[in-house]
Write a structure and sequence with these properties.
By secondary structure, the protein is α/β, with parallel strands linked by helices. It is built from 29 helices and 17 strands.
Amino acid sequence: MVSEVKDIGELKRILKDTFGYTTFRFEQEKVIRSVIEGRDTMAIMPTGGGKSLCYQLPALYLPGITIVISPLISLMQDQVAGLSQHGVKAAFLNSSLSPEEKSTVEQQLKRGEIKLIYIAPERAILDSTLIMLKALPISLIAIDEAHCVSLWGHEFRKDYTRLNELKAVFPNIPTIALTATADEKTRIDIARQLALKDPQIFVASFDRPNIKYMIYERENEMKQLHRFIQDNHIGQTGIVYCLSRKKVEKVTDELKKLGYKAVAYHAGLSSAERTRSQKRFDHEDGLIVVATIAFGMGIDRPDVRFVAHLDLPKSIEGYYQETGRAGRDGLPSNAWMVYGLSDVVKHSRMLEMSEAGEAYKKAARVKLDLMLSLCEVTHCRRQFLLDYFGQTQTPPCQNCDSCLEPPEMWKATIAAQKMLSTIYRTGQMFGSTYLIDVLRGSQSERIIENKHDQISVYGIGKDLSRGDWDSLIRQLLYLDYIYIKDYDFKNLALTEKSREILTGKKTLELRRLRLKIEKKSKKNRSSHTSGKDKVEALHQRPDLFEKLRVLRTELATKNKVPPYIIFSDKTLHDMCAILPRNREQMLMVHGVGETKFDNFGDAFLSIIKEN
């Protein structure tokens, strides 16, 4: 099936009247044109980059029904609720529906009352579903979170690998595959597994300039997290990621004790508990969700102001996906992380103990090494991220900790020689804690038993703190001078490359422990503008914004939808800046279309006129 874009004005009319936007973002227009012209298409766009519009707008332009394969019930519900507020007829078929509700949706489809139908991958490939869909006028198939299709992807969902069966049933219907991250190898694999025919591939910029990246060494993670939130995000919504379920529970409790509204989310909770946490996240302002990576895919909330990591992610793809859940509305937001050597050891141990094949383990080790490299890099972090995704020659961003607080460097050759010698002279059989104890002259029973208080390197490292030595070890790992030999005992060993340092053929200049810089600049923090201040500076009407937000909450409660479904924070801020006085002016506001104005416009105009 091939259609032509006969009238670009019609696309822009739908864009404005239905969704309230005046311009396309990133590669949206090119992707939409490709889809409407009947081509199989792949769109790689950053989280928050407007992927959904790339199939929702064609769905309204094309005559028939659009099938959307979506991985999560919560995401389907949010998408359908959002489209309904825009006046678009959409529905979903998933396990949350009763038999009667499922039958009603199927009858609506047969009568042509629905433009978009969201279906889980497991249901989409059932014979009964395929028979039902085959009798309908299907115009487009959209595969969301398409990286789940790929064996090379950083997520994997078995039923996604059978979605090529849709292509067999609908060989002439265009398919669009959408994801936030996919390198070239993953893109090729997605196209193959979905049986896409000569797909048009669009890769938008991976840059999210509104996100500020900050990465620090772990000292006392709860104190560091508390200070970060107090300095930047009091009363704002955020996500805190932890590696284990146990840590999620602990951090949630600690945040509550500090006076924050916090809920836990992880796979060990019951379905009812996870649903409650998800609902609170969708509906409440100022809530912090502490979660494992089980919480993430399908987050559609645009006003998450920060994402914090208390453990090192296992790959840059995962880090990019998770941090991309902040600031989807384009307003200033923060991606903040603390990490330590123990994170590398934990991930490495989990990988080695897994039943995955050696090819997978090898690829995963490389990804972990690159994630550590992002943490230890001394230049612009955004440059490093974009370079990883193939966007080179980008200037320093001036919106990451490396740009704003350039790392202090120090001549570390002698210290490195001391550490490498200690690893060698203790038989390459010990972990970092023990090695540092030897260097700092500890009188521990274990050191004395091993007679390591009698070797030449004992006590020669008292001039550096334990934190300094930890930082040095991480950088030696990152630079491939040492490696973790035994993941059970965390033993460190020398690589062949270490000879360059031990023999003095190469000198080292390393980044000094970041904590010192953070403490030095603490007294100057009051002069720094927080993310909240930057947003309010767009209009200098925080009083009006708060009144509009209260109204939004009331309307959301009445309509039983999340507040951002009514209007996003960005729309409320735009109202504060434009101060519309009538329908025509209100329709100039970002995110206000005809249907939304008809439903809510007068109520917001009334508040604005009174203030």
